[in-house]
Amino acid sequence: MKNTFLWIYRLLNLFIITCFCSLPIYAQNQQITGRVLDKGNEPVIGASVLVKGTTNGTITDLDGNFRLNNVAKDATIQISYIGYKTQEFKLDGKTHFPITLDEDTQTLDEVVVVGYGVQRKSDLTGAVASVKAADALKGTPVSDITNALQGRLAGVSIMSSSGQPGSSATIRVRGSNSLASESGPLIVIDGLMGGSLSSLNPSDIASVEVLKDASATAIYGSKGSAGVILITTKNPESGKVNVEYNGYINFKTPYELPEMMSAGQFAELANDYVNEINASTGSSMSEFYTPEQIQEFYQNGGYDYIDKVFRNMSIEHTHELSISGGSEKTKFLFSGSYNDNQGIVNNSWGKRFNYRLKVDTDIRKWLKVGLNFWGDYQKSSSIRFSQYNNLLIGALTYPNTLSPTDENGDYRTNNLISPQYNPSIFVDTPQNDGYIYTSRLQGYVDVKLAKGLNFRMTQGFTFYNRNTQNLYGTGSYEYYQSYGQQTSADARSYHNYSWINTNILSYIREFNEDHRINATAVLEQQYANNYYLRGFGRDLISEKLGYDALGMSSLHTVESERDITTMLSYLLRANYVFKNRYMVTASWRRDGSSALAKDNRWENFWAMALAWDIKKEKFMQQVDFMDQFKLRFGYGENGNQTMPSGQDYLAWTQITAEKDKDGNLSFVTERLANRDVRWERTSQFNYGLDLGFFNNRLTASVDYYTKETKDVLLYVNMPIYTGFTSRYANAGTVTNKGFEITLGADPVVTKNFRWNTSVTLSRNIGKVKELADGNSYADLSGNYENKYFRNIVGEKIATMWGYRNEGVWTSEEVNAGLAPVGTEAGSYKYKDKDNNGVIDENDREIIGNGQPSFQWSWNNALSYKGFDFSLFVIGVHGFDIYNYTREARLSTNGSIVLSPTPEWENRWTPENDKNTGVAGFIGNRNALTPSSQYVENGSFVKVKSITLGYTFPENWMKKATINRLRVYVSLQNPFLFTGYSGMDPEVTLQKSLTSGIDWGYYPNGRNYLVGLNLSF
Amino acid sequence: MKKQILIASCSVSMLLCGCVDLMQEPRSFLTPETMVYDQKTIEIMANGLYNDLWFENYAYNCRSQILGVGADDIVTGTMTKRYTFVDQLNVTNAQHDADVELMWQNMYAVIRSANSMLRDVVKSEDVSDEVKNPYLGEAHFMRAFAYFNLVRYFGPVPAILDPDCNEDMYGNASGSIIRASVADIYDKIIVPDLIAAETMLPERARTNDNSRASRAAAKACLTDVYLTMAGWPLKRGHDYYVLARDKAKEVIDHTDTKTYTLVQPYENLWKEANKSDDTEHIFALNHDSNNGTASNYGRSYYATEESSSAWSDYLADSCFYERYPNDTRKSFNFIANFKVEGTPRPLNYKRTSMRSPAINKYRDYTPLDANGKVIMTAQTNGITPIYRYADILLMYAEAQNKADGSPNALAYQCLNDIRKRAANGGTYTEAANLSPEDFDKAVFDERGWEFFAEFKRWFHLVRTEKVLEANMYNPRVKAAIEKNGIAAKSKEAYYWMPLPIQEVQSCGFEQNPR
């Protein structure tokens, strides 16, 4: 009997147990050997073999064999493995033992973490996806677990949002429910809400569970609507002290860099520009370059600003070390990791140190306490990939014929025809420092009150400190920006402190074969206290002292801010299973929060789910190729209490003070109170089906869901006679519908060769269903990317709204009077939607959508003797990218950008009087934005990782007292298949509301890793 | 037994622990609920009125210039700028919605703050009326000034006196708030507010400079209001000229101990060092880019020919320049010959792309480097002038002539004092023995010269209904006006700005005619 998860579990156990068992070092009594098989005569890998009453033990190898030294002649040997009945036998003088383990139907089930407790996987009624961290990391070794999880969980979209070291990926579970206060799923680490996945040491993680549907997430009430990711870290296990080391070195390179004109070509283009503009407008500019200069550019080249931005190769390395062990009663685990990560862009880097100490002690049979102390320290340096004066766009557009500095040694602040900072300024001048230190202390007390009745109190504290310091010295961008060109510096520090207190009363009882109950009652309290302090100094006496002596500046200011939020919650959940096949779960949570006005403070959230395993019915017993046929249905409601940034106290009118010219204070009303604000509320239906065939060698899980989120927070217009143009209000309804399919198979399982393959398919369509006051659309408030999108009732979120480009007008068309009056030949041609002869904002229409509708992944893990190989492919389809980066190389806000982009060669000219797609160098080009010509198909398929590993045979390693040694090489993102013309389609998906716009974001690159896993 | 104790204590602790406090008031900002109205608070509230009027460096100091480009003294800085539409009297929401919306929001922000003071400070029992009243006077003044701007830019506008904006002056609840008539805004808000301000404000501003409202500021504004009420659109004529004449005379007659004179010479009014002067500047917004409330003079007023960092937003109208009398004001107010980097010979304005001189008035507010070269940064210092003593003199001259049918000696003196100062010791044409019409014309022109680029000319043209007439000098503007058939439209269609689109949509207001 095998099934997929058992195999996974066996491998995991092999891995874990190897860590905790060590080889005997003294040989006195005798040596025994044996082989453990299951009823199907297949070896049981990783079964635990223990001399009872001692810590002398081992596990079975890949062939099920074990060897145990120093066994007393009268010893009792215990063989156990999850899913099987534990066997014990006496030696009775024998030294070789062929053993067959019996399947244990009672414990066959794996348990999964479901929030405030665990549940048998077979009893699950909701949509829960689960991944064993070790499996994901084996195929995709990374320093941030999110990158390894990408594509592995159906319905969970993970997009690497930036190549900046230390930046975290964008995670969405079943799409986005929110429009203005969208922040992704709730992260719960070891039962403690909050925290970030990227701050974890991946080797510490045992499993990742994602609660997707409302029946599963409703227990997280007002925090659960965007899905919940539960992280469980490894628990210490008793046994001899075990040391484990994992490390890799990663060589990173950028993807193909964008095409550029050579300096010679560009110098010629610049002269063409002058001549063509003169011809078109009658002006009399003179050429920029003489033929000699052009010749020289052709010979000696110019200034390669792209080269200035990207490194040819950067290096990342990671080291993770853990030590664990302990007695039956007290167990400990200590781990630390260090990651040093150079970005593929110059001057960008990140460093992270992480530690964890976990101790569990059984004080009495009924009393258990434990401690989990962990934290991380990070430093990073990032470069200006902002929307305004973006480094990458700067490097792509700045004339490569101009040196970074002028004759006086000042950075250039103009290009050939308009003001533009030389991009070098953003790479060369930033001077910053800072760190983030997060420390968490978690303790629990677990009391067995009666049979099945348990009380557990957990108290967690989080201390978060962050410091950032910036010096804006002579010659920096900010220096040129400031009044009269002054140096300045600032320092910010953040001191956050929070605690969560959770009290769980649980009752888990199996009365007999027919009845099982798992009930939980919880009281939870949360408190968060965030403090921020900033000092700023302008006109520094000494640049060298900079932010270390802010007081030594002609003008210094200080500001501080504190906000305190509290929450009180009650929850109840019960899961009842009848005859192993009828399952029902019901839950209820009541949340009260300090962030809302008194009348809206308390909300109730409830959920209900049913499941039926038809295979367990008598009439299905005959169908022997099938192992599971389970139907699930769930409905639930939950909320989103994320407030848009800086809006924690929406229910109050906000009055702050500003200075006037003499430094007098004056009150400024920043915002009027909105006492009606309430949580966004999502209701969700989920329909699921789990199937298992051929001894679970083939499994399938299918879920279909519909979600509707009401009271969606939006930044809505308000009458301006209030002095404000807009405010946050609950003003919309959003729906998400989709399905998820997970298929798993073990096509080949032989003694030496195993092949495991799995496929996930996810589809989600998120639409705006309704907007307040019967509005049919709402433009996104804000600038930059937001200007390219519009939320339209009945349309998908991330709909791009603009002009439909139809190429350029030819002289023939203009002369024939086909173009609007005043049109110049060679200017852009747009669709006149209302046919009124004028192109204006009424001619805009939907020009694209940036929300991917379909994502898939295909994972393969093969092993042959000591070799393991994995291939992981992901695909993202059904979305458009607005290539702003391409547009910005041709024009911004309607004006020509004279950049070295090869696209200029296709422009309209009087000689090339055709519909070329790029307007000419003429007076009135009519370049409107957003324009459909920059919308491209964004779909891509990425080979995420190819990994080849080799585990040295055990008997070689024994001599070196090494338990396990594996070396591997891994290629990450080696192949990218896409029709998209920009550098990296994935980073365009970093924000859900403006998904699909490429705004000079920091691209990802290709990685080449070499690493090893070692334990002794 | 132990267990039972534990069960009991656990249950009890569970219940007791539910004690986290859900009442968390904001810690780092004030709310109306937590405000204590002592004198310090009231003063900071009052300071807020001026901050609201400034609003942002790109707001009052900038938008009022943009919306005034339609006057005859300044023109758009380049033809591709949207200001060209204002210049040619063709303002629509297509190009200018953001401009009108900002002006609208800016004024209503002042009104909301004034309304809060006039409700909450009045109620306060912490301080005496004696302490309160000067500050309340500032609130009355600023509310009146904001409505005065609104009614001149937009005509009928919502009359909001409730700080919570739940109802308008007529008691209409939000959702059914209407645009109050121009007459009601003047009669029920602006005039009563200014009369109240006049009595409550101190003779000299509490900061002893021009940056806070004083009694003379209220009188100057009231004079301006009466003159405007006498002209378009209310056209109440004679009675209001009388009111204006008398109000202006109160300041000229020095009935207060705080007196005003003309600063000599004219250009000293525009020095950064003198920006707080209150010998002639009665009321102005003061700017400082380091502390806050920066102005927008740094790049907008420089011509493209002068520097590649220049924005060239506004230039002087060359026809206005050419008509300008040859006095020291002229040589100060305009830059007709540009210094061009790298060439020793200056470039005459006639050979520039816009064939227009630049505006020199606000250039002392931008810093220079060690070589005396301007360091151009958009945000800089200086003032936004609002009322000067010169205003009082010319308003008096205009009102007295209209009220009494002919100019009296004081009116002549007012006009001639301005001319005399402009001559700065040189010769000038002394006005004398003019017909009422000629005198009016002389005062009208003098106002143009004196207040060149001072955010005033547009309103003056509107109330005297001379917008079209004044725009016939510049051939480019004239041609555009004719091409677009502006003259055939109703005056409301180009005297008033369009309402912000958002306001029309969310409040159901009827848009001004275009």
From TrEMBL, chain B:
<dbReference type="Pfam" id="PF14322">
    <property type="entry name" value="SusD-like_3"/>
</dbReference>
<comment type="similarity">
    <text>Belongs to the SusD family.</text>
</comment>
<dbReference type="InterPro" id="IPR033985">
    <property type="entry name" value="SusD-like_N"/>
</dbReference>
<dbReference type="Pfam" id="PF07980">
    <property type="entry name" value="SusD_RagB"/>
</dbReference>
<feature type="domain" description="SusD-like N-terminal">
    <location>
        <begin position="79"/>
        <end position="227"/>
    </location>
</feature>
<protein>
    <submittedName>
        <fullName>Membrane protein</fullName>
    </submittedName>
</protein>
<keyword id="KW-0472">Membrane</keyword>
<feature type="domain" description="RagB/SusD">
    <location>
        <begin position="342"/>
        <end position="506"/>
    </location>
</feature>
<keyword id="KW-0998">Cell outer membrane</keyword>
<dbReference type="InterPro" id="IPR011990">
    <property type="entry name" value="TPR-like_helical_dom_sf"/>
</dbReference>
<dbReference type="GO" id="GO:0009279">
    <property type="term" value="C:cell outer membrane"/>
</dbReference>
<dbReference type="InterPro" id="IPR012944">
    <property type="entry name" value="SusD_RagB_dom"/>
</dbReference>
<keyword id="KW-0732">Signal</keyword>
